[in-house]
Description:
Elements: H1 2-11, E1 30-34, E2 40-44, H2 54-58, H3 64-76, H4 83-92, H5 95-108, H6 110-122, H7 128-140, H8 147-156, H9 160-172
Antiparallel strand pairs: 1-2
Helix pairs in contact: 1-9, 3-5, 4-5, 4-6, 5-6, 5-7, 6-7, 7-9, 8-9
Amino acid sequence: xxxxxxxxxxxxxxxxxxxxxxxxxxxxxxxxxxxxxxxxxxxxxxxxxxxxxxxxxxxxxxxxxxxxxxxxxxxxxxxxxxxxxxxxxxxxxxxxxxxxxxxxxxxxxxxxxxxxxxxxxxxxxxxxxxxxxxxxxxxxxxxxxxxxxxxxxxxxxxxxxxxxxxxxxxxxxxxxxxx
Length: 179
């Protein structure tokens, strides 16, 4: 479905490996962390861990499930320390990190997140997938800059990106429909 496709877009994964970095905003993300004595202890992401929280350390983890979930948790907490990392991923990361960064900035909300997304959009080149992901994130934050690209892609009705574009437009303005 379109919701599943949108999650896949931001992680760079296909339907075979569904990472769900965004998860359900109403449910806490719980991770297992190893204590100093080697014993694992579950805790909610965002729980205060002092100067070096687990989420920040997981941003460098090689496992996409870990770094994307950590980035989303920090974005939902509106941790300003994550903004430079997300901006770097958006500018120069591999596709999964670029798409995750756009989704995280969307969740972060606020003027700073919109400014980062808009600067990347205005910076020009990027392939069509990246432009569509940026357009969707901007539209979700109330900036219609990329709406024409989403509309044209949806109207072309070719491939999964058309479904993504149509679902994005519909979620922003259900009166426009999906047809």
